Amino acid sequence: MVGRIPDGLAGPRAGGRGVSLAQGFSAGRERGHAPRGGGLRGRADMHIHSLYSDGTASVTQILEHVEQHTDLDVIAITDHERIDGALRACELHAGGAHSFDLVIGEEVTTRRGHVLALFVTERIPALRPLAETLHAIHAAGGVAIAAHPLAPLPLSVGKRSLRGVRDHAHEDVYFDALELFNPSYAGRTRQGARLELNAAELGLPGVGNSDAHVLEGIGTGFTTFAGHTATDYRAALLAGDVTADGAHWTSTHNVDVYRRQLRAKLRHLWHTVKPGHDDWR
Question: What ranges do the domains of the chain cover?
Answer without folding.
Answer: 26-265
